[in-house]
């Protein structure tokens, strides 16, 4: 009698196959909800955009400090090999990858310090930023670049622009009309209409810029 009771208790204390399947299904549903909330790809893209924004801000500040101290930018009349140059500070500076020697992060090659680093406007470690390395490597992926450009005139701002990856940054920039089409080699930024960037897939020639 005791053996029968023990066997019955052991059997009734366990889970049936149906109950196990229900528990597994619930756990899977919870996992999907958590992943959707966390969205690791979006988090990674947002971290990328935050890093590019911070580095772009540092670069713009360094260029403005260099200008304030010398009344010119690193690219003006530069004699550094490979540098994109202008004849004077008022001339427009066509957008170009920030690894170019004219910007002042890199020297003739990116194994050498540029003028912003040798003049203590940026730390040497800035030369190892991924957008500098990828630019020097000639990547065809526009999302890997930070472009620097300036309009004509002494009052024109210097801009640092990059292609955002995160949906949240894209949507915010689109809603605030801060999205631009940029072509390397041109000093112009063409605003993208909010209705255009909100309507479809993000175009990798659409940039956000600092200063806004």
Automatic annotation (TrEMBL):
| Top-level division of the source organism's lineage | Bacteria
Bilayer-crossing residues are: 12-38
Secretion signal span: none
Q: Which UniProt keywords apply?
A: Membrane, Transmembrane, Transmembrane helix
Q: What is this protein called?
A: Type II secretion system protein GspG C-terminal domain-containing protein
Q: Which organism is it from?
A: Candidatus Woesebacteria bacterium GWB1_43_5
């Amino acid at each position: 009698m005791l053996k029968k009771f023990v066997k019955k208790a052991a059997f009734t204390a366990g889970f049936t196959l149906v109950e196990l399947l229900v528990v597994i299904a619930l756990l899977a549903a919870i996992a999907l909800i958590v992943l959707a909330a966390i969205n690791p790809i979006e988090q990674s893209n947002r971290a990328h955009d935050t890093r590019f924004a911070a580095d772009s801000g540092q670069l713009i500040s360094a260029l403005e400090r260099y200008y304030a101290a010398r009344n010119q930018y690193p690219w003006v009349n530069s004699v550094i090999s490979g540098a994109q140059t202008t004849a004077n500070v008022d001339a427009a500076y066509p957008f170009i990858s920030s690894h170019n020697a004219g910007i002042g992060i890199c020297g003739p090659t990116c194994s050498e310090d540029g003028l912003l680093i040798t003049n203590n406007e940026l730390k040497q470690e800035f030369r190892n930023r991924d957008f500098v390395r990828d630019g020097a490597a000639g990547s065809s992926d526009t999302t890997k670049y930070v472009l620097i450009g300036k309009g004509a005139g002494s009052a024109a701002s210097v801009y640092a622009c990059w292609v955002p990856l995160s949906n949240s940054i894209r949507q915010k920039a689109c809603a605030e009309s801060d999205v631009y089409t940029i072509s390397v080699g041109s000093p112009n930024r063409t605003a993208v209409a909010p209705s255009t960037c909100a309507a479809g897939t993000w175009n990798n020639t659409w940039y956000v810029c600092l200063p806004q």
